[in-house]
Amino acid sequence: MFVAVVALLAIGSTRDAGPLNPGDRIDSISRRVACPVCDGESVFESRNPASEAIRAEIRASVYEGTSTDDEILASIASSYGGKVLLVPSSSGFDALIWALPAAGLMIGLVGLWFAFRRWRAEAASLGLPSQDDYNLVDEALQRHRGQRDD
Q1: Tens digits of residue pLDDT in 81-133
Q2: Domain ranges within the chain, ordered by starting residue
Q3: pTM as predicted
Q4: 2-87 falls under which CATH superfamily?
């Protein structure tokens, strides 16, 4: 199950919707780069001069036509630092950081499944309660009620 989920996530995250025109490529790349000055804004949203310069760099690279989107993003990351990327690269340490929470969730779910299975087997091995068990519970309830009334 874990392998299937990871495979589906990998396929879905790398799937291409087809060729984009230059304007769509510029917008797509700009949405994946954080403004180096603003907090919480992408280069696409920000009107800061630093963002304008990055957009101009992206535009020039796209219209030059010699670089892929990943190469343009790598160039920007090397110029401004890796923290400027809003979407981490799909390989190396960045991919590991994004995959660890999903792996932890899957391991936790599998662990819970095993625990519930073990608890169910333990409960079934105890069998049905006997009359002595019912008597023991009744005595405990009467003692508890007697302490509460005092």
Answers
A1: 778 888 766 667 767 777 889 899 999 999 999 999 999 999 888 888 899 99
A2: 2-87, 93-149
A3: 0.52
A4: Cytochrome C biogenesis protein (1.10.8.640)
